[in-house]
Amino acid sequence: MTLNFSQESMLIYTLLPFFALLTVSLNLLVIISISHFRQLHTSTNLLLLSLAVSDFFVGLLVVPFQILLLEPCWLLGDLACILCSFLPVFSVPATAVNMVLISVDRYVAVCDPLRYGTKINPKRVKICVLLCWIYSVSYDFLFLFDNLKKPGKYNSCYGECVISVNGHVDLILRFIIPTTSIIILYTRVFVVAVSQARSMRSHIAAVKLQRSTTVTVKKSELKAARTLGVVVAVFLMCYCPYYGISLAAYELMTGSLINIFMIFLVILNSCLNPLIYAFFYPWFRKTVKLIVTLQILQPHSRQANVL
What we know:
Elements: H1 7-36, H2 43-69, H3 78-86, H4 92-111, H5 116-119, H6 122-148, H7 167-203, H8 209-247, H9 257-280, H10 282-292
Subcellular location: Cell membrane
Protein name: G-protein coupled receptors family 1 profile domain-containing protein
Transmembrane segments: 12-34, 46-69, 75-104, 125-145, 172-194, 228-250, 256-280
């Protein structure tokens, strides 16, 4: 059933922009926090920064362009139709790849902690993040290129905005491969975490001082794994319904209630990530306070102790 301009339309034009503004604001706080404070320039936080950037663009671009596409008659031309359909979602593949990178980071930290510092360092993470965004842009251009050969060739009448997307390729590259990788990696992390927790409980009384330090480090890594596990779980819950519809071979029409609900889930996922950080990470609450009170404008604020 498609939307009529009544209660559903009013809900869309008020609720979606509100969540988009909230998403942009919250992720901007994450971007400023990790970029500004030197203590937060760690490998894991660089991945969180990349994820926050992709979530920021989801909030900034997806809703405005989708509202344009909901109009009953498209009057901006065939080229604008293609750009408005593809540009808002260029950061969605980046979100999926960032989730994979976060899963790899936690896998190495928990399953191979002694070599974590050599395997995962800021320089390698920056290269991986760069490749992630190159892949995201290239992925979008791959679908964009076929439609740019002859703009408007899929329109059946004037005023339509119809584009062609290979749903099977999109399903495999943007959902099945990343999701499978995430599930496999976090299953391994969970198994190792449970094993380590049992080992700690059985030997805690006989632990020496040096060993105690190691246990503390492992506990911090396990806590980070749990927190980022929540982020990954929220990502899967928000993105699975859309691709579940694709797997069921259901045709998702632009402007339908189901389509709007799927867009809302994407926005919700990008909005929830900063809230998860605020709940689990004390450093994020501290940095938000410093940002809101403009204390980051003071000299040497980059060296502030936020951990």
